Automatic annotation (TrEMBL), chains A, B:
Organism: Tolypothrix tenuis PCC 7101
Name of this protein: Histidinol dehydrogenase
The keyword Metal-binding is annotated on this UniProt entry: yes
Family: Belongs to the histidinol dehydrogenase family.
Underlying gene: hisD
Pfam families: Histidinol_dh
Catalysis performed (reactions): L-histidinol + 2 NAD(+) + H2O = L-histidine + 2 NADH + 3 H(+)
Amino acid sequence: MLRIITQQADVIAELQRICDRTHDDQVLHKEATVREVLQAVKRQGNKAVLHYTAEFDNQTLKPEELRVTGSELDTAYQQVSQELLAAIRLACQQIEAFHRKRVPKSWVEFGDDDVVLGKRYNPVDCAGLYVPSGRSGYPSTVLMNAIPAKVAGVPRLVMVTPPGAGKAISPAVLVAAQEVGIQEIYRVGGAQAIAALAYGTETIPKVNVIAGPGNIYVTLAKKLVYGTVGIDCLAGPSEVLIIADETANPVHVATDMLAPAEHDPMAAAILLTTDAALAKNVQVAVERQLVDHPRRIDTEKAIAHYGLIVIVESLDAAAELANEFAPEHLELEIQDPWELLPKIRHAGAIFLGDSTPEAIGHYLAGPNHTLPTSGAARYASGLGVETFMKHSNIIQYSQSALQKVAGAIDILATAEGFPSHADSVRRRIQREE
Amino acid sequence: MLRIITQQADVIAELQRICDRTHDDQVLHKEATVREVLQAVKRQGNKAVLHYTAEFDNQTLKPEELRVTGSELDTAYQQVSQELLAAIRLACQQIEAFHRKRVPKSWVEFGDDDVVLGKRYNPVDCAGLYVPSGRSGYPSTVLMNAIPAKVAGVPRLVMVTPPGAGKAISPAVLVAAQEVGIQEIYRVGGAQAIAALAYGTETIPKVNVIAGPGNIYVTLAKKLVYGTVGIDCLAGPSEVLIIADETANPVHVATDMLAPAEHDPMAAAILLTTDAALAKNVQVAVERQLVDHPRRIDTEKAIAHYGLIVIVESLDAAAELANEFAPEHLELEIQDPWELLPKIRHAGAIFLGDSTPEAIGHYLAGPNHTLPTSGAARYASGLGVETFMKHSNIIQYSQSALQKVAGAIDILATAEGFPSHADSVRRRIQREE
């Protein structure tokens, strides 16, 4: 049963517990396993990759079976329906259109005395895209990973995804990959996939950035390899926080709470509402919708452990609690969502009004669905074109411009005890040889 | 003696060794120490902070001495010269002017059927700024950390810096902090400072993002707390890579190679030149400049271990090697630096021409001096306003817009096995209660 508490109760502590669910001791235990997998793949390459694939995914592969073949790629198109292909193409189009807006562009500006300052943006050379496995694969995640990389101009895209029964990869995933121009796909998942992308193996190339959401093992592995490679963000188990008033539809709110929960037993679903009647109705609706839910066990587990309804005193109080939690997904199911919006500081994505369920953002509204979880929205953004780009500062001074600031640099460098810094300017000014 | 090798020799392996100097086994050993410090501070707060300050910085503090007092802040202004204050103010002005350019701005766009999409940018609530200690403190690092945070609009800035002899903090650092509006300063450095900012203690607040360069312990600590908080980038021991042709001045090149080296015995200095005579002259000039160098021992150590001159066949070959190395600082000391620039893909900052020594960027050209090192420029940018901001995706659909994409979402959600995702749209379209 989805719990209802009031703001007077220990709300902060409860929200903190749910937010920190991926930081607890059980997770630290998993970190040891992940560390072992990383070390093994770093040292033994393919051998370790295949070992853990057998152990965790129950699939015994030969090294030459790691890469998905051209004929598998071709066959995939015959295995998906025309309707699914059309839906994938619609999603592609909308996601690409959104990601093409406000792409960082190189610039230089010319100042006095021929000073030139600017930034040059470049894509990374090679990106690794992680696509988790699912009952039927997640083509949407392929698009959300690959399209920003493609828009960024990354020349080489490498995809990894765990093999299912019979070593197979979902045809929908293979079709989605080809729709965005990815041909290089390896059947490997979990921490061993992240390790392979970070360190490289005999078969799988070392990449510069690893992007994509995953379960707790994948998320821990990404955190640990950060520094060897770049990563998008720590996109762990999904979460939704809904702020609702008396105008909200309890059946819609309940469905939206079950949506992240059906992803993962560690997912979180929180409702903050000013309306006690709505709270009760959502509680009942969640129970009712769980009865026949095809993923009932996992979904119920998430709702039981990390589900919560809080009756709040005001929408402002709800906004403040939402900022504390910094949810991956925030839904504003209230009369005037635009009025509350300026009070929201921390959230991965914000969905306004009853006609905007989180699912629309998950599949095809355009913005990315790989978003910071577990409070990371306090400091991080979701996956985007910027994930695959970085800039170099550009500086050019002229002799006369250097002359004008030489005194100040000399004073600062001398104060900091850096004689060669001071000399590097002094010698140029004095034209010393 | 600074070694000279030719491109035919094992250049790739040598550059790799230098680039990876912070990833070797000795560093892994330090990681164990850092992990212990982090755990202790997380569990014991101030007690552990004070313990490690006594152990590593030789300063025995009481908890109430951690925070720099108002009277220390006041006194600092009387302890710095008017010239230094003027230089700090000039640097402030130029750094702020640069960082105010192209600051990310929130946007929304209105599409067909009343669809609204956009991004909202917000600063983090609280930023922690690390300023390493030095013989006389590093006021420049205060400015480079704090100004982007201030431009981003971060409401609370907390600075940490290790106490020197007599528990003192450099007056220049305290003045620079006040010039950019920082009043909250704690005398703590090293991994214990990073831990305090990441987890919070009885005295030091938990922040959302930690920025600033540091030695290998600080850099390792930042890497390990990433995920609990955000970080700017892994800005470890400094490095310069200079591409020079026969027009370069060997004395200037030599001085610019000593500049990072005088920072840290783990700093790196590399020259790639097409001109064998220049190589020899730089080698001699480095030797000569080292003779009376006030930081000779550390500087010589860096040059001996991580200094290198490579004679290359062409400037294009040099650009390709530079991309492989992805240096923190890249100087183009060649006839036409703008011609080679488009071939440079990976570098933290690029300095063009003989009148642009790295020192000018270090102090006051405007762009940030906290930049990715050890190859991180392959995927990361330097510290900037973006370090302290993040965005939320904004989505609002109308009932009629939802209706048009409902079929596609239903197909995708069903293909991925997510019934509640499908239901969340279906129930809204059918106006089901």
